[in-house]
Design goal:
Layout (H helix, E strand, L loop, with lengths): L1 H22 L17 E3 L6 E3 L15
Antiparallel strand pairs: 1-2
């Protein structure tokens, strides 16, 4: 009878531990499936000015060079 109670308690503890891994993944390391957003800015390689990122062809607003 004592072994049965011990097995039930062990099962409850195991269940709680495994549930805490799924509910609080940040406390056990960063496992977030969300990817960080892409940066909307980039630096001009010529003058190091921060400019907005475009999909096709970049032109710096300061030095007017394309990159």
């Amino acid at each position: 009878m004592d072994i049965l109670i011990l097995a039930i308690l062990l099962g409850i503890v195991g269940f709680i531990v495994t549930r805490s891994y799924t509910i609080y993944p940040s406390s056990f390391g960063d496992r977030s499936p969300v990817q960080p957003r892409a940066s909307i800015t980039t630096k001009c390689p010529h003058c190091q000015t921060v400019v907005k990122r475009q999909e096709h062809g970049q032109t710096c607003s300061t030095c007017r060079k394309s990159f």
